[in-house]
């Protein structure tokens, strides 16, 4: 595959992510802020409390959905960010951006009374974004290997 085609595919992927990111962010805000009633502002600063509830209560399914939902919520963020901007092609930069995005959401939930400011949510959201980042890295490695094999004609039968 020549450099022009590779450049074009990379640019198309970035463009698609740039178009999808505002839609994704809107849905995250709708899920975490807009669709919730206003209550008193609360915080829960005990780390790993959701895991403790998962282990200690009979509602394992509920707590697993809570944990997995927070992991899944920022997975697309970690996947799209390095495609959109080369600067985010390190786990530290993507992780810091995800932590900042999650901190923003949790802070707005606290200020507006539309949710609980939770340390667990910060951890799970950041971890979910990092999983998305590593899926991106894995996919890029596979793509590079495929391109290398394609260019050297290893796929000929």
Task: Give a short overview.
This protein has helices at residues 3-34, 49-56, 60-73, 75-84, 91-112, 119-151; strands spanning 42-44, 116-118.
What order do the strands of the largest sheet run in, or round the barrel if closed?
1-2
Shape: elongated
Q: SSE order in H/E notation?
A: HEHHHHEH
Strand content: under 5%
The value of Rg in angstroms is 19 Å
Main sheet: strands, sense, barrel: 2 strands, parallel
Look at the structure and give the mean pLDDT: 88
Give a topology summary:
Blueprint (H helix, E strand, L loop, with lengths): L2 H32 L7 E3 L4 H8 L3 H14 L1 H10 L6 H22 L3 E3 H33 L6
Parallel strand pairs: 1-2
Q: What does this molecule look like?
A:
- With 157 residues, the chain is mostly helical.
- 76% of the residues lie in helices and 4% in strands.
- It is built from 6 helices and 2 strands.
- It has helices at 3-34, 49-56, 60-73, 75-84, 91-112, 119-151; strands spanning 42-44, 116-118.
- Helix 1 packs antiparallel against helix 4 and helix 4 (75-84) packs across helix 6 (119-151).
- The longest helix is centred in the last third of the chain and has 33 residues, at 119-151.
Quick tags:
single chain; 157 residues; mainly alpha; two-stranded parallel sheet
């Amino acid at each position: 595959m020549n450099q022009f085609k590779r450049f074009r595919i990379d640019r198309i992927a970035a463009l698609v992510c740039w178009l999808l990111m505002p839609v994704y962010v809107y849905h995250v805000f709708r899920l975490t802020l807009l669709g919730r009633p206003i209550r008193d502002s609360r915080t829960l600063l005990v780390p790993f409390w959701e895991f403790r509830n998962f282990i200690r209560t009979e509602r394992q399914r509920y707590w697993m959905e809570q944990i997995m939902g927070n992991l899944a919520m920022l997975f697309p963020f970690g996947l799209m960010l390095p495609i959109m901007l080369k600067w985010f092609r390190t786990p530290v930069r993507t992780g810091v951006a995800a932590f900042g995005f999650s901190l923003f959401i949790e802070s707005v939930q606290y200020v507006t009374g539309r949710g609980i400011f939770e340390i667990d949510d910060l951890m799970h959201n950041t971890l979910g974004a990092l999983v998305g980042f590593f899926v991106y890295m894995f996919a890029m490695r596979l793509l590079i290997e495929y391109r290398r094999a394609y260019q050297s004609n290893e796929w000929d039968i």
